[in-house]
Design a protein that fits this description.
Keywords: DNA-binding, Membrane, Transcription, Transcription regulation, Transmembrane, Transmembrane helix. InterPro entries: Homeodomain-like_sf (IPR009057), HTH-type_TetR-like_transc_reg (IPR050109), HTH_TetR (IPR001647), Tet_transcr_reg_TetR-rel_C_sf (IPR036271), TetR_C (IPR011075). It holds the Pfam family TetR_C_11. The chain crosses the membrane at residues 161-179. The chain is mainly alpha-helical. It has two domains: 4-66, Arc Repressor Mutant, subunit A (Orthogonal Bundle), CATH 1.10.10.60; 70-211, Tetracycline Repressor, domain 2, CATH 1.10.357.10. Helices cover 70% and strands 0% of the residues. The chain contains eleven helices and no strands. Helix 4 (58-69) runs parallel beside helix 8 (123-150).
Length: 223
């Protein structure tokens, strides 16, 4: 039989995870500015003082949420890319699938929407998100695209904007899921599997080695 001391120790060990889960729920539901640490503590079933034992500020709590639910995946994804043996098309397909399963289909997909709407008011968080999520995530996608180019599976491209072309549909899906999809009924609903399959088809058609390279038009010079 587990004694009271052991139960308290287990409860203490679980608190950081419980606090991060509660914080994710509230940040996604209310946004960063409107979420109060007292609410996070209450939802997690602890006092505000207990929360501050683990996370000294709301900013540090938010950073921990991002690391736990988003950037914490990057190391394993990097390892998968390093040892992937299939085609670069299959690698890109796995990339979209893994993003959806680990982030898009979870409550963590509300974090990109939060950053898009609030980063300007909290530039220090915007800089953190850029360094912790955008840059390493972009680097992983760039590795996939460069692999495809090197192997002759993708045509040469400007990698910076190739990365954006992969990221943009994922960001759109996350924002749509936490905005219009949640309030406009079935007619506004996007089926993620079909959407990502369509996006992958468009990406591979555009990246395909069988299409002649052509520099994209510079819109700023168009007449």
């Amino acid at each position: 039989m587990i004694d009271a001391h052991t139960r308290r120790a287990r409860r203490k060990d679980a608190r950081p995870s419980e606090l991060l889960s509660a914080a994710l729920d509230l940040f996604v539901e209310k946004g960063y500015a409107a979420t109060r640490v007292e609410e996070v503590a209450s939802l997690a079933g602890v006092s505000k003082g207990t929360l501050f034992l683990y996370f000294p500020s709301k900013e540090e709590l938010f950073k921990a949420v991002v690391r736990e639910h988003i950037s914490g995946h990057f190391a394993s994804w990097s390892e998968e890319i390093e040892h992937f043996e299939g085609s670069s098309q299959d690698m890109l397909r796995d990339c979209l699938k893994s993003w959806w399963e680990n982030i898009g289909a979870t409550k963590a997909s509300g974090i990109p929407k939060l950053m898009m709407s609030e980063a300007r008011n909290f530039p220090e968080l915007g800089a953190f998100y850029q360094q912790e999520v955008i840059q390493p995530g972009s680097a992983l996608i760039a590795r996939i695209l460069q692999r495809g180019i090197t192997r002759g599976e993708f045509r040469p491209m400007d990698l910076k904007y190739g990365v954006y072309m992969v990221m943009a549909p994922l960001l759109f899906l996350a924002m749509w899921t936490h905005s219009l999809d949640a309030c406009c009924g079935p007619q506004a609903r996007i089926e993620p599997d079909k959407y990502l399959a369509a996006q992958l088809d468009m990406l591979l058609y555009g990246f395909g080695a069988g299409h002649p390279p052509q520099a994209p038009a510079n819109l700023s010079n168009s007449e």
